[in-house]
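Step 1: inspect the first sequence and its tokens.
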Amino acid sequence: MTKHIKRIGITMSTGRGNYTYDYLNRNYQDYFYQLDIDLVYLPNSTSTIKDILKQGGWDGFILSGGADINEAFFDCTDDRLQLNYTRDYCENQVLEFAIAKNIPLLGVCRGLQFINLYFGGSLVGELAEEHVATVHHINIVEEKFQDIIGNMHMSVNSYHNHGIKKSGLAKELRSFAISDDEVIEGLFHVRYNIIAIQWHPERNRIPSPADNKIILNLFGQNNE
């Protein structure tokens, strides 16, 4: 069989020093490369993002991790929030394009939170220490994902102090993974080809077979 390399667009974080720049942890490239996925970096450029998306040839998109989301994005009037607004605007365009073209989309950590906010959900802050720079246990509560992973439980890394509780989950989304303290760790859309995880598969020293199964199930196997 011929190996097909997937072309996946991925969003980036934005920083500011003497100039504004985009960046992405190289762990993403290393991790997704072993899944035969070629990452295409999507700039935080409000003037070009729509044209870049229209170039086509996309097998999927990833909303990457990063700094906390500015929840004021959906009604942003404060100039001091402009830096976060630029990333949020571009990720909003990516999400809407993926929905319109029925292209698979994965949210990672911040990406999960962004997806929930986009569909009308809410976040909670100041989570317990079990979610900050640690590893913890989660329960796979959706039968489809139990079949994909081959297990009802996982251990995942955790690098977030904001998250989603059941009461804050958007109506169009469903949880497939929940922590013991009832923080939603994995979700999917009931109609669109959208999955999101609160943990970082790219930060594991050794790639997790369960993570690989979730991602390859979303983007499709790479052998044709």
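Step 2: inspect the second sequence and its tokens, then contrast the two.
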Amino acid sequence: MIFSRISFKLVLIVGISLLGMIALAPIALSTLRSQMIADRQAKTQHMVDVGYGILAHYQKLESDGKLSREQAQAGAMAEIKSLRYDKVEYFWINDMTPRMVMHPIKPELDGKDLSAMKDPAGNALFVGFVDVVKKQGAGFYGYLWPKPGFDQPVDDTEASVAARLSGVQLAVQALLAKRPHRHSSKEASHLTRPTAG
């Protein structure tokens, strides 16, 4: 009888402990997932700062009279076009119309008005980027876009980060593919860092 009471209490303690761990597992996984997304967003934000710095450098060269506007724009675009991080992630430049200024993977978009372009979910993605920049000055924007080497968007939500230079109506944006997990397009956002002009 003593053994059965001890066994019952031991089984009860183990059972309650297991139930507690099972109950906490989704919370821990959700927290881990959120932290992974935040880390990737912070990394992408830092990468956009590189593109932003390139634009600012060429803008300064132009304002100092060392380069013409055309030379400064061509130099900045060439540098940003060649930038990659995480081997496949890239930067592009669009203006606030939105019109594509430079896209390194899809050069056929260069010079095109993108206001009517929608992703498969129906989001007017480039209009959304510009709206976030104008309204918030910073944030991530979710959309679907084909990764390099794919014709159709893959099952990942992607977000981009933008940096806007004051006085220059351009946004430098970086692709952020959220590969570790699958997300709905509502879970991502879009970021901009305006400068004091």
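Step 3: confirm your contrast with the notes below.
Residues 179-197 have pLDDT under 50 and may be disordered. The radius of gyration is 23 Å.
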